[in-house]
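# step 3/5: fold
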Amino acid sequence: MPYPAHVKIVEVGARDGLQNESTVSSEDKIQLINALSVAGLKHIEAGAFVSPKWVPQMADSLDVINGVSVAPDVVLSALTPNLRGAQAALSANVKEFAIFTAASETFTQKNINCSIEQSIERFKDVVQLAQQHGIKVRGYVSCVLGCPYEGDIEPEAVLKVCKQLLALGCYEISLGDTVGVGTPNKVKSVISLLLQHIPIDKLAVHFHDTYGQALANIHSALELGIATIDSAVAGLGGCPYAQGASGNVATEDVIYLLQGLGIDPQIDLERLAKAGWAICDALNKSPVSKVSLALQAKCAS
């Protein structure tokens, strides 16, 4: 199968990235999201309406989303794990809700303190509210290529959860390699099975780079026709429930890969890198992205 002609990038740095970093100011988050919009990102995960007790980094999501100034065609999404969170997101005029579960029972219990079946049941009210207001719902499935507690995950377990989320009303399922243990062969095995039952335009990939395989895994997904990729500017993030898990694959690195394959994601790589440098300065850390570091060195020379 040829590579997709067009690839959608879902930028998750402002939520999935920052919620696993040290706390930064609301203004830093607003500037990041605005800069991502200027760079050409059209789908930006902007916050999470979750308990501030458990995720204090996202406590200001309402202020952040209300404070941004992005292009009219930019879709801002937010994590909405329950009805209360969905109602808060609705008040911020978020265009897309995101719900999450996992293909691993143990991970689901550790992450959201319930079984997979119970998590699906919890989401019904969220989806119903979204449908009443014409809001799309995106589903995340964690641990599709491996679990820190259960080890290998059978592709059939991934398929079962994906089917449940689609039946619930999700328009798209993001397949998460939460601990970054996947390899290209694992990616091909899981996605090949899913494509026997699920339309290709309903699947996305969300890979972490713990073992340095994220770009190789994305390339395998592209070869199978997957045309939506989640990534985080500067490679922000990690997973608090998976010791040693590094951040999401860096958006800069994904863009460079796509350009090298002749796919134009219509994102300004230099502006994107600068957005990453600014948020990394606020975090007092260096970008994880190899492409970002190379551009930074080039600008300094």
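# step 4/5: annotate
The chain has one domain: 8-300.
# step 5/5: archive (pending)
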